[in-house]
TrEMBL record:
Transmembrane segments: none annotated. SUPFAM superfamilies: P-loop containing nucleoside triphosphate hydrolases (SSF52540). Belongs to the AAA ATPase family. PCH2 subfamily. Residues 160-179 are annotated as: Disordered. Residues 225-377 form the AAA+ ATPase domain. Keywords: ATP-binding, Meiosis, Nucleotide-binding. GO terms for molecular function: ATP binding; ATP hydrolysis activity. This is ATPase family associated with various cellular activities (AAA) domain-containing protein. GO terms for biological process: meiotic recombination checkpoint signaling; reciprocal meiotic recombination.
């Protein structure tokens, strides 16, 4: 497997060509679970994409299809580029690019094109993340072009209140935050996520298939479709980030079907009340608002329930407490509401959990896909560290990398800096992706010089890893 990283606008790779062992994370579908356990949104501009013909539409789910995502500099240009002829301009430009890497932004060298588009990404589920794409003319001809512009509104808090007429027995809190997608906040999340397997492409293909089947009127009694995805694993592995990045990609891929895409980030902790039995009512109120959004058939609604164990803890375990009735009501309310929103084909629910064994078995049974997201391997850690150091170079706080390191790592494995980085990545075993991304900052703070060279930074990085490893060991004991 090849793991790629984009640095300073250069299409390049830090990769290992030897076979990588598959992740121990397993995928559980509905056929094989293997687990127990009021603000008003304002109108926005419509994102237009190239209308797909019937042949393209029928082939859109195939893994060998090429997607071209084009981000425009301004929403004012969306209408102008909604025609097939305008989209073909980007296809023709792709033919002139020599090296294209999966999910890596291109350098837009065409000055005229760069005035309109500030980002072009070519991607396919057939290739690994960062792998060099081998494109034939037919691949580009059949490619789907998705043209979009990001919104920079920021999250909109939604008040949650049961009874506005009785302030003595009810309280108001922020039940969720709404994001208009594609949004600027989520734009770069997909590329910075590094995994050993193809979990990102897998989730994107599966979620896309769920929404397509539902939109075409699939009978949920025949096909078990709940549009509920659960990601579980240790903290800091990027579960929440994957969900946000996935929703962003879906809003772009499906923008010719849904004129608006809304991301609802549920504040799980606000759904618990000090008043007896009020938690279930708060959950019901929240899902009523989600159903109101979903009632617009041209809206795509993605719901994120982070740390879902706080709402769906196993009811058997709850009865061991002194007063389990309210928590049981909360679980029952969540399950009931999930069953209700099944009738809306434009709703996708994404959930994350750090404690999968604590989840109620009835909730897990409702998931379409239950995916383990584990800590990165040494190869993934190497890419994470390299991307962080490349960012240091981009903002000019360290000296330039050796040219051979950027351009031809595979054939120059004797380079001292490369070997040092690989060795240090191997020492990051057991650390989460979040912890690994903190290491370069800690290393930079330890450098004695204001603008250290790469060797000096790697030397400080070695010290930082040892310090974090000691701290990690102490926490475990």
């Amino acid at each position: 497997m090849e793991i790629g990283v984009e640095a300073n606008g250069l299409n390049r790779q830090i990769c290992e060509t030897d076979n990588m062992s598959a992740s121990d994370a397993s995928v559980h579908t509905t056929a094989n679970k293997g687990m127990h356990g009021n603000g008003v949104l304002q109108p926005v501009s419509i994102v237009h994409v190239q209308p797909a013909d019937e042949d393209q539409e029928s082939n859109c789910g195939e893994s060998n299809l090429i997607h071209i995502e084009v981000r425009l500099r301004s929403t004012r240009n969306l209408n102008a580029f909604s025609t097939p002829d305008k989209c073909n301009v980007f296809k023709e430009y792709i033919k002139t690019v020599e090296n294209i890497y999966n999910w890596r932004p291109l350098n837009i060298e065409d000055e005229v094109l760069a005035l309109t588009a500030d980002r072009i990404v070519v991607c396919s589920a057939k290739y690994s993340d960062g792998q060099r794409l081998v494109l034939e003319n037919d691949d580009i001809r059949l490619a789907k072009v998705h043209i979009y512009a990001v919104k920079d509104f920021g999250p909109m808090p939604q008040d949650l209140k049961i009874d506005e007429s009785d302030d003595t027995t009810s309280s108001s809190s922020i039940g969720s935050h709404h994001h208009e997608m594609p949004c600027k906040e989520f734009e770069d999340l997909w590329e910075v996520l590094v995994y050993d397997d193809d979990i990102k492409s897998e989730l994107l293909s599966y979620a896309y298939a769920l929404l397509q089947l539902s939109d075409r009127g699939a009978n949920s009694n025949v096909l078990a479709i709940n549009r509920l995805i659960l990601l579980h694993g240790p903290p800091g592995t990027g579960k929440t980030t994957v969900c946000k990045a996935l929703a962003q990609r879906l809003s772009i891929r499906l923008s010719n079907r849904y004129k608006r895409s809304i991301f609802v980030e549920v504040n799980s902790h606000s759904l618990f009340s000090k008043w007896f039995s009020e938690s279930g009512k708060l959950i019901g109120k929240l899902f009523e608002e989600i159903q109101e959004l979903a009632s617009h058939t041209n809206y795509l609604v993605c719901v994120l329930i982070d740390e879902v164990e706080s709402l769906t803890m196993g009811r058997n375990a709850a009865f061991s407490g002194a007063d389990p009735s309210d928590s049981v009501r909360a679980v029952n309310a969540v399950l009931t509401q999930l069953d209700k929103i099944k009738r809306f084909p434009n709703v996708l629910v994404l959930a994350t959990s750090n404690i999968s064994t604590a989840l109620d078995s009835a909730f897990v049974d409702r998931t379409d896909i239950c995916r383990m997201v584990g800590n990165p391997s040494s190869k993934a850690a190497c890419v994470i560290l390299a991307s962080a150091i490349a960012e240091f170079q981009r903002i000019k706080v360290i000296t330039e990398w050796p040219k051979l390191f950027l351009n031809n790592v595979e054939n120059e494995k004797c380079i001292e800096e490369v070997e040092c980085l690989k060795r240090l990545a191997g020492e990051c075993a057991g650390l989460s992706g979040r912890a690994i991304r903190k290491l370069p900052i800690l290393a930079y703070s330890k450098c004695s010089e204001d603008k250290p060279c790469v060797k000096q930074l790697l030397h400080s990085l070695e010290k930082a890893i040892k310090d974090v490893a000691i701290s990690h060991t102490v926490k475990q004991t």
